[in-house]
Protein 1
Amino acid sequence: MTCSRRDFLKDAVSTTAASILPLSAFVLLSTEEAKAAVANSDARYAFLIDTNRCVGCGMCVKACKNENEVPYDAPVTRMWVERYIFTKDGEIHIDSPMGGRDGFTDNEMYGEEIDPDDIVKAFFVPKGCNHCDNPPCVQVCPVGATYQTKEGVVLVDREWCMGCAYCIMACPFGARYFHPVEKVADKCTFCYHRISKGLQPACVQSCAFGARRIANLKDPDDPATIIITTERVAVLKDLYGTKPHAFYLGLDHDVR
Amino acid sequence: MKWHVLHPLWVTIGVIGLIILGGRLLVPDDFGVHGRNFTYGYHRLGSIQDWKDFPVKYQGRDSCVQCHEENVRLNSASVHSAIECENCHGPAVNHPGGVQSLTVDTSRELCLRCHAQLGYPNSNRGSIPAIEDRRHRRRRDCSTCHDPHSPKE
């Protein structure tokens, strides 16, 4: 064999590299196939959250925990309500006790009482998974346990997730958590089991003030879709570029 | 080429071959790219049906009215009409099948979620008639005087 050292190294590296590629990675969708996969859905769900209406009752958090079997007393939640209080000294006080599960019944925050006379502005912001169009949590999963359905809902495959929690770190909104019982990553599923039967998500149904609503962005007659497309809406953390699909009315500039 | 030089290469290829073989055996057949692209659509297709099969707990007001007509009628005519029955009574699941009677939570804390005076200017909270917890009939359940289904009576 008259093979030079250089040639041998080149051959060795290229052979090894070629055998590393798993065969399924060679499935490349043509652009037509890719468009067809997304286009053949007649729904793209999004949240419409009106912070002007939210009173901080926390019924949505309670309903979500009951409906989705999230351990009630564990400090984990699929969605939560934050309270923002702006006081006269220019401070912003933010809290979300147990995610707002028990509502907000007094002005005590971290052991200190805030005097209502000191309050300049105060409001509540319901949050949860934004079911982004470019979800970073899906992108980082090393095993393919999380994915986005054709309706835009981001889900976790409980049987495949290995609990590395990489996705929990990746979400800029903090929407994911580690399920203490199932030992996998968990998050808001948009109540997929409900919307696929024509019901509303648990949080939407339980909101008595209409602060939480859902929209099907592909349905031009959906009243919530009309609001999203014609009124002034905002999203959280726009600079991350994840294209979140939870649209807010009345979102204050200081909301994190 | 001497065998001892090529040996690590054969070991590497062997290990990678074992991993690919293990994948072929252990990975379910419906695993693949389903949807937009590899980045966002690489998953086990059966998972979607798993999530659709998750049991529904909250049934909604329409299922309550079938038997509890009177209370639903009272509630629908009152200022509490927008509140779902299950918000206070808990999820129905398959009541009366599984759970004979849903707990009636008459605690003060439940009502204070909306009716505690917080004094926030410009919040929708201000439009709800509220009490200062410390000053109004302390430690008693609100339902001793107020009917939750039609509170203004």
Protein 2
Amino acid sequence: MHPLAEKMLRKSALPSIYCPGCGHGTVLNAYLRAVDQLGIFDQISHVGGIGCSGWTPVFLDSDTIHALHGRALAVATGLKLANPGRKVTVFAGDGDCTAIGGNHFLHAARRNIDLCLIIMNNEIYGMTGGQAAPTTPSGARTQTSPHGNPEPTLDACKLAVCAGASYVARYTVAQPRRLTRAIKEGLVHKGLAVIEAVVQCPTQAGRYMHGTGSPVELYRIIKEKTVDLSQAAGLKPEELAGRIVTGKFHQDPSQPEYTEQVYGLMDRARGGS
Amino acid sequence: MADEVVIVQGNEACVRGALAAGCRFFAGYPITPATEIAELMARDLPGSGGVFVQMEDELGSINSVIGAAWGGMKSMTATTGPGFSLMQEGIGYAAATETPCVIIDVQRGGPATGQPTLSSQQDVMQARYGSHGDYEIIALCPASVQEAFELTVRAFNLAERFRTPVILLSDEIVGHTREKLVIPRDLEVTPRTRPRARPEEYLMYRADESGLLDGMPAAGQGYKILVESQTHDETGNRRGGDMEASARLMRRLCEKVTNHLDELTDLEAFGCEEAEVVVLSYGSVSRSAGHAVKMARERGLRAGAVRLKTLWPFPDQAVARHVGAAGRVIVPEMNMGRISREVQRVLRREIGVVSLPRLGGALPTPQEILEAMGGR
């Protein structure tokens, strides 16, 4: 076993539920590296939602809550407020976070609560067998869009910035170093850090949407679609259609953080300054 | 020091009871007729070192209450019918993961938006069966402002001991009635206790013979808690595909409640020994029922009263003992007669069990109940 896995994985919860070639393992890898480099594993509680991605924190040998579908951020809000001295990382899928859990996503961002939210975006509902998600490209064929997806695609990062999250970045699994760096920044950032990790799903999105179940081929497709934020600025909307823009979209450490606001209010109510 | 005596409404009594019981986290969403609980928590919790958060919806409320419980705080929410419906998945989650918390449902008329400002007892079965899957729940029914306080304290104590969500089934009448509340100086409060096992030996869901768990750990105490929503084994690890482990868990979750029926049973019986007719009631309806029985006895009827303070688990033996000998049992309720069916089940007969359903939002009057008893 890799030394990082030896150190931080919950052995009794293994093997993982990930399919062979799944991108979620790469995100977990980046997360372990980020946490290890910061030396803060013992200071973090973890919350996951439902779906392939939601299992990620279950594999961590830490305080972990595996919540209901869509409710990871709500559980994390209570956990953080009750236990403000500890960091909380939330792992959620694109459907978990932006569809069924969309309201909590909006309001966690608005509150700018000090959580590190990692959205593992595979553009599809993987665990249930490949149905369309809010992140599924328009026109794509899935099990619930066999004639092509009639819906437009949600950009979770844009939504997070608009709603008030104070750190927002997106990288793909083909950019593991940048992804690791973003997770590190997100973990030390005070406020809601939203890190979207674009991952390949060979089993569902790969086979049904991209015509290949090969992780290598899916990596190539992800790389081809990726545009850095700096280059994206010079491109027209039609040139950006279907592309994955990666980079750091927003970072503002000066935005008020919710837990501090709540505890500040408590101090004042108790007659403090 | 003497007891504190105040005049407050039932919703405020719940808040005072919660604070006295050690509640330090409240999450809620405005909804009539439960809103005063959130408002007063917002006012009073911060000064008591507690956290108030107004969540974006009731799903957020119940789930942040669950998160706070595992963060180490006694936690609760309050709502009414529509919000209670939205919370059901979370209540099932709390039952399955053995998360102590308190949910107050100040019942109003329904279904749907129903009657926001009027009272009902239409959620008694939602409290019992509201979430999917099999589980047992504890639900308490106050009939007065004093009981709203006392049963809120008891709800927190039971949540800690039984490691389960406990529902306080209040109603609009109890919630908005203002009357005397005596807050005793000495209250029995069950503290949150850590597991006795050391972290390295600790198993999340190792239960004693009666099905109860060993203390409640919190994040950051070194236990490396694993709160797993899928059916799980003693370690907390998922065993959804393991039929035996899943069946074992489901059975224990139910039996840890039913094994302690005597301890959970809480009712008042009056004049049942010689009674030919007994009125069985719960919640605000007991106010009319008590009056009706008094009137009946004044008129020479051999009448008795039973008032349930714990509604779930249903106190089968105690009910059978108190009303079994009476020829007739009158069950006035502000619903279609849901609990009268429980009485029929317990007595194994329909004959002589008279349901007196009252819909529309008003209490049945003592006169109505008296007439059903055969008096006038």
